[in-house]
Design brief:
The chain has 435 residues and is mainly beta. 4% of the residues lie in helices and 41% in strands. It is built from three helices and 31 strands. It has a five-stranded mixed β-sheet with strand order 1-2-23-22-21. Strands 3, 5, 6, 7 and 8 form a five-stranded antiparallel β-sheet that branches. It has a five-stranded mixed β-sheet with strand order 4-9-10-11-12, with no helix packed on it. Keywords: Membrane, Transmembrane, Transmembrane helix.
Amino acid sequence: MKRSSRNLLIGGGILCATWAVLIPLLFRESYSETALKGPIVDTWSVPALEPATVVLPGAIWASVPARTADGKVAGWVHEGAEGKFVALEEATGRVLWQASTGPVPADLVRKDGWRVNERVPAVAVTLAGAGAFLVAGNRTWMLVAEGGGSVKSGEFPPQVPPATGAACLVDGNFWIGIADERDGGIMLSAAGVLADVRSDRPAGCLHAGDPTSELRVISPLQNAHADPTPYAADDRVRGYPPEVCGKYSKSQRMRTGNAWCSDLRTTDGDPKRAVMLHISDIVFRQEEDWLLVRRPNSADAVDFAPSITGFELSWPRAFFDGTAYRNVTVQNNPSSTSFEAKKVEARTEVTEIVTSISRTGELQWARTIGRGDLPNVSPDFAERWYYARSLLLASHPGSPSQTLYVFKPGMLLALDQATGAPRFQVGAPLPPPTW
């Protein structure tokens, strides 16, 4: 393991310095590196996920799900043109209760999968409150009572911008983020009364992260959220070890190195257990230290470094979704007695892998979620490559059945956090959009 320590060593000559200078330096973090450890195989040799038990056959999962402390996952599904709100047992997928929500509003009908530059899922969000669940998407809101006994619904007034995918519980009521370009929202009471004024984002309603960052899909409803740790105005590396995120050059008046990693620092609680990305590597904070975990690439004996498109946290576990592509040549090799013409076909194959990596750098498990030909999502090669991505969502921290959810528009797949084994699946991924 390589270690670079920036902790100050105090000698007799330094003791005369003022404490105002010494104290900030005394507590600067240290930084170390390690190679990914464990049973690592090549990206294209990662075992495929076993088929999951299908729950609610014929249904399409249509919202970012809510996860509760008592071990439920809940959300909105479409069965043809009809909507339904369902609550499932996390451990098994057993239906606990369900409620009809009527015809699906036209502005919430979705027929295709990930779209070009869709970083925050353009689907309804689901949020658990005291005795009721919120469903909010575009200009529509619904409140579904716990147990499914009643459903209230309404629409935003014409002057209110559409919902953005952010929602928070505030004193028993729901704050719904809106696209007003001021990070604003609108309050919906637990009784179903929509406020007639705009409101700023509540202090406890944390951001998911920067949607313009290298992550390809994030949601404010993930356990992982942007680390709110403040930093000094003159701290050009925003509290990071310069070895990780680059150094500030006074002559060039800019940071050199990986300047965007600060946008990707997230945590699911204490800032001292934050996670961030450094190019293709993963960096874990360990109290006052940072550990960079290098994944093997094509220069190593094993190549296991799919491009990370998103991650989720469930202390102490960390989960990563990644995609990779390769060019392959396929030929039919007809027999010597066959009149079949010889054919050689070149194509591009894409794969998606979900991994669990410990905070000390061990690969705990990896599963291939899907593999196939690169879809024609857009002329932009990266968008076609990243189409295979998923949004990862972990259970509520208090849930007795810790589950990792793999969400794509149309599908919710539940995995065991400890092993990666499938638990259940609702729906299937919607087809690629046509360009």
